[in-house]
Amino acid sequence: MSESTMKTMNVEYAIIGAGTAGLGAYSKISRKTDSLVMIQDGPYGTTCARVGCMPSKLMITAADYAHHLGSSEFFGVTASGRVDGRKVLERLRRERDNRFVANNIRYVNKIPAHYKLEGRARFIGPGRLRVGESVEVTAKKFILACGSRPAISEVFEPVMSRVLTSDTIFELEDLPRSIAVIGMGVIALELGQALHRLGVETTIYGRSGKINTLTHPDLQQQALDILSTDLNIYPSGQVVSTWEDAEGAWIEYEQSNGQRITKAFDRVLVATGRVSNVDRLGMEHTGVEVNEAGAVTFDPQTMRCSDLPIFIAGDVTDHLPLWHEAFDEGRIAADNALNYPNPVPAKRRPPLMVAFTDPQIATIGQSFRQLQDREIVIGDLPFTSPRHVVWNKVQGRIQVYLDARTGVILGAELLGYAAEHLAHLLALAITHDMTAEQVLLMPVYHPSAEELLRDVLLDAQKKRRSNEADEMTLSSSA
Ligand SMILES: Cc1cc2nc3c(=O)[nH]c(=O)nc-3n(C[C@H](O)[C@H](O)[C@H](O)COP(=O)(O)OP(=O)(O)OC[C@H]3O[C@@H](n4cnc5c(N)ncnc54)[C@H](O)[C@@H]3O)c2cc1C
Ligand SMILES: NC(=O)c1ccc[n+]([C@@H]2O[C@H](COP(=O)([O-])OP(=O)(O)OC[C@H]3O[C@@H](n4cnc5c(N)ncnc54)[C@H](O)[C@@H]3O)[C@@H](O)[C@H]2O)c1
Fold first, then answer.
1. What is the ipTM of this complex?
2. Which residues, if any, are the signal sequence (predicted)?
3. Residue ranges of the alpha helices (H) in 161-266?
C-alpha cells in the first residue's frame, strides 16, 4: 500500500483490544474525551464470553447433571441418564451466544462507529500504530489490552487436524469418543473432568506431577488423589511424539519414571497455558522494557510500562489472567492514561481464584508458598460439616493462614465442594484485614457449609493460643 492510500487517524488515546480489559478502559476514557479509538482484531464478544469462562462453565454444568444422575443411587433415587453430545453442545452455544456474547455485542454496538477500528494493530514507531495494512494511527497514549492465545508446542504438529484448544472445543458438532488432555492446569482439569463426566473417554497428561493451582503440598497431593479416583491422569512426564493414522491421533508420553505410554485418541485438547499477544505488537518500536521471558515490565498499581505513556491491562500482562483482574486493570490503566504523567496508584484487591472442578479448588490472599518465611498458624480441617455430610460431599480440605502474632487472616487454600462461597467470605475478610476473632463474631447458621469456615477459624485460634501459651511457659522458665 502506498503512503498516499494509507488512511491516517490522529487521536489522544488508542486502546488495543476490545475484550474485558479494553472495554473496561473504553468505558472510563470515553466519559472524558472524544479523542480515542479502540482497535479490535477478530470477533467482538470477549474471550470470557466466547471461548473462556462462560462456555466452559456451561459445559461443566451439563457434566454435573450427568454426574449427579450417575451417582443418585446413593440417595435411594434410581435415575437413568443418557448424554446427547450434540444437544449438550447446541445448548452450550445457544446460551453462550444468546446471553453472554449477545450482551457484550449489544454494548459494543452502542459504541459510536468512529471510536472503533477493526484489524490487527502493531507498533511501527514510537506513538505510531499500523492497523491491518491500510490504516495508520498516531496516538499520545496507548492501552495494550490484547489478551493471550493458547500455547501449542511443536510436538503436536503431526496431529494438528485433531488438536483442539479452548478456542475451538466449544464449536464441535458432537462430543468425541475419546480425548487426550494435555496439561494439568485449570483449563485441563475443568474441561477434562467435564468431558469425562459427559462420557468421553478422557486421559489427562500432566508435566510437573503437581496440581499447581494449590501450593500446600498436602493439598496438591490430595487434589491429585481425589481427581484421579474417577479420571485417568498421568501427572508427571512429557509428550515425546505424536502421529496420526486411521485409528486417530497417537500420543507417545514418557512418564518421569522413564516408562512410555502410547495411545490413540479421536481428539487432543492442548491446555498447556497461554501466550501473551504482546509478542505480535512490535514492542521493539516503543522503548518499553521487556524481561528475560519476553513479558513487558509494568507497575501493577498504575499498569504503566516503563516511564512511557503506554499502559497494559488484562491477560496480555501474563499476570493474574482472570476476568475480574482484567476488568480492574483496564480501569486502572484508563485512570492512569487519563491522568498521565501523574500516577494514580490503585489499591489492588487480594488475589482470588476458583477452579470449577469437583471438588472445587480455591485460593485467596497470600498462598502457603508465599507465606513460607512468615510466622503463621494454619487452621486445617477436612472439608466436612454436617451440611457436607448431607450432600455426600466430604472430600477435600480447607486451610486458613493466620499471622501468628496478630491473628489477621492472610490467605487460604481450599479443596472442596462449592468452595467458591467460602472463598468469597474469606476474600471479604482479607480485603478488610480482619482477624479470625472478628470473623467469628458473625452468626453462622446450622446446618450450613459456613460452619466449616467457623470451625477452621476456631482451629486456627486454638493453635494460636497454644503457641502463645508455649511461648509464655518458655519465657517464664527461662
Ligand atoms: C477456557 C477458559 C476459561 C476461563 N474461565 C475463567 C473463569 O471461570 N473465571 C475467570 O475469572 N477467568 C476465566 N478465564 C480467564 C478470562 O477469560 C480472561 O482473564 C479474560 O477474558 C481476559 O480478558 P482480556 O480483556 O485481557 O482479553 P480478551 O478478552 O482476550 O481481549 C483481547 C482482545 O484483543 C484482541 N487482539 C489481540 N491482538 C490484537 C491486536 N494486535 N490488535 C487488536 N486487537 C487484538 C483479541 O482478539 C481479543 O479480542 C478463562 C479463560 C479461558 C481460556
Ligand atoms: N476457573 C477459572 O478461573 C479459570 C478457568 C480456566 C482458565 N482460567 C485462566 O486461564 C489461564 C490459562 O489456563 P491454562 O490451564 O491453559 O494454563 P495454566 O497455566 O493454568 O496451566 C497450564 C498447565 O500446563 C502444563 N504444561 C505446560 N506445558 C506442558 C506440556 N508440554 N505438557 C504437559 N503439560 C504442560 C503446566 O505445567 C500447567 O500445569 C489460567 O492461568 C487461568 O488464569 C481460569
1. 0.98
2. none
3. 186-197, 217-230
